[in-house]
Amino acid sequence: MAETAEPVGLIEALGYGVRDVPLPAFAEGAAFALVAARHAAGRLELSGDPVPMLALTAGHDAADAAWRLAARAVDLRQRRPGHGVGAGPSRAAAVRAAVCDAVARRPPPATARRLTGWEDAVPPPLHPSFDGRLDCHLFDAPDGLPLVGAVLRQGGGATAREIRALGCALTPAGAVRAALDGVLAKIASGGWTAPAEPVEVTAETTLDGTVAEGELGDRVKAKVRTVLDDERGAVIQCSLLEERPGELGPWAEHDVAGCTAPAEVPLACPPSRVRLSRLFHENSKIRAGHRTLPPVDIDRLAPTVRQALARPYRDYGRTETEYALPTEQQKQALLPLDVAVRRRRSAAPMAASALPAADLARVLDLSAGITGFARTSGGTRLPLRATPTAGGLCSCDLFVLTRRVDGLRQGVHYFHPGRRVLQLVRSDFAFAEVAAHTGYPGRVADAAAIAVFAGAFRRNQWKYWERGYRMVLLECGHLAQSVVVAAAALGLVAHPLIGFVDDYFNRLLGLDGTDDAVLYLVLLGKAAS
Ligand SMILES: Cc1cc2nc3c(=O)[nH]c(=O)nc-3n(C[C@H](O)[C@H](O)[C@H](O)COP(=O)(O)O)c2cc1C
């Protein structure tokens, strides 16, 4: 925040604090919230209590946004309704900002010219994939300064929503930038509204691309008052001599009273570190009214597809190295749920003894086992499992790496839920090598078996597209938790692990790592007494 150090210092001197506000992945820029000093950034906010926002500013340029927040802080301290406030590194910059702020706080004239070509001078603060429309209008303002109204609209029909913001500057391009900064601020604070009446457009005009700010001169008749002017910066209040009564309506700033700044920001990493996941999350959202997934009627799918849906698992073939899971001891008492859940501990010590095959079978039955069938109206029979599966598509496969399991060879096995067997996939590897490809070789060396969860993304994504990826991860979590709880109910230790070398495990299981990929491990072992 080097370039924001001065305005932030000024804000702190006024007795407030500043917090970063994350923008959604489709928006580009910086946003800051003005908060009480005790909530200032840099302090750990482990309580998770909501942090009330006092004001919010945003902009493509972090320093501009922070200076504007300093002006808002002064505004709050010395409420003078109808005045513009400007803050900046110099008195001249603060006067310019104050006058422009005062102009943009007055209701705009009724008509405007639609601006074209503004994108060449001022980059829109939105990711190109954003499916909305952004228009800029140059109001035929009687003031000597250009006033731009930006309108961002998304969606259609009953779900259409809109953001409007006014911006004033010394040049039309500067005014576009100021208006877009206002749009960003409303995006950051959730200031979307239902669409208002369209702006009455009288003509089109191409933007003069001069962004550099000139001098204010006496283009606007205004009275200015110096609030502060020293080495920390300058703050100016301004009132326009010419009154223009009326309401700002949809152009008014979003009132952030009641909005909360993210409480966890001091613990968060910079958005650049999580750029891909933010982008993915944004693009895997279900949005009301559009981008809705196509409905799928299973009975109308091709017979081969219906067959695949009825057997949503792999099959490594009937070989001599297929183990039918034992059925004896199925009556073995399980610990009551509350006892099992309270006793469970991931890092509990594991015994060096072998895992009974019956225990492993029980864990598999209670997690990935088939427990029933659903039948579509057309008669397709779809297997249902002990664990919920997204769309009933069973998109998470369960493998078991056996090391010390009574009656089973060491190796990678696939749990075939349809036939309730463990199919040996391979045994030509050393267990020490497996342990070495995790972040916890010592701990893994203690395990009698490892449950390996592999996402079968294509099994889900044909239906759920980008959202399918989320669903497979969730399904994997459900399945793994079933393994953990079943193991706990048998008095076993179950230790989940995400710290492993992906490509090694994918190769070990023969998965391509893209459409089918190992997601998660759970170490299993008998509890050391
Ligand atoms: C998604 C997930 C990933 C995990 N990955 C690891 C891991 O890589 N290494 C590890 O030692 N524990 C891992 N754990 C176990 C947690 O460290 C453990 O659950 C946590 O310390 C709380 O302990 P408890 O499970 O005994 O309640 C993971 C747990 C979850 C839910």
From TrEMBL:
It comes from the Bacteria. GO terms for molecular function: oxidoreductase activity. It holds the Pfam family Nitroreductase. InterPro entries: Bacteriocin_Proc_Enz (IPR052544), Nitroreductase (IPR029479), Nitroreductase-like (IPR000415), SagB-type_dehydrogenase (IPR020051). Residues 341-526 form the Nitroreductase domain. NCBIfam families: antibiot_sagB. This is SagB/ThcOx family dehydrogenase. It comes from Actinomadura decatromicini. The lineage of its organism: Bacteria, Bacillati, Actinomycetota, Actinomycetes, Streptosporangiales.
